[in-house]
């Protein structure tokens, strides 16, 4: 069974795409917070931690999306993986 063609704006994995968008917003807000805080603020360390975790999670999700695309491309014409 052939898959219908996707529109250019449809992500391969909508959930991962939505989560990456939210994580990107968190990363940006952390940047803004760090610009507004004094360097010696005790909260800076926590903001840096949250930003690092958000970056790591976004990278993992992006890697998952790429792997999903590779799997779907190599299995065209075969039984669907997801």
How are the SSEs ordered, and which strands pair?
Layout: H1 14-36, H2 44-74
Helix pairs in contact: 1-2
Question: How large, in whole angstroms, is the Cα Rg?
Answer: 18 Å
Mean pLDDT: 84
Helical residue percent? 55-70%
Shape assignment: elongated
First-to-last CA distance: 14 Å
What characterizes the major β-sheet?
A: none
Element order, helices and strands? Answer: HH
Number of domains: 1
Which regions contain 5 or more consecutive residues with pLDDT less than 50? none
Number of strands: 0
Please state the structural category.
Answer: mainly alpha
Q: Please give the count of helices.
A: 2
Q: Into which percentage range does the β-strand content fall? A: under 5%
Overview of this protein structure:
Helix content is 66%, strand content 0%. It is mainly alpha-helical. The chain has one domain. The protein is elongated, with a radius of gyration of 18 Å. The mean pLDDT is 84.
What is the compact description of this entry?
The protein is mainly alpha-helical and 82 residues long.
List keywords for this structure.
82 residues, mainly alpha, 66% helix
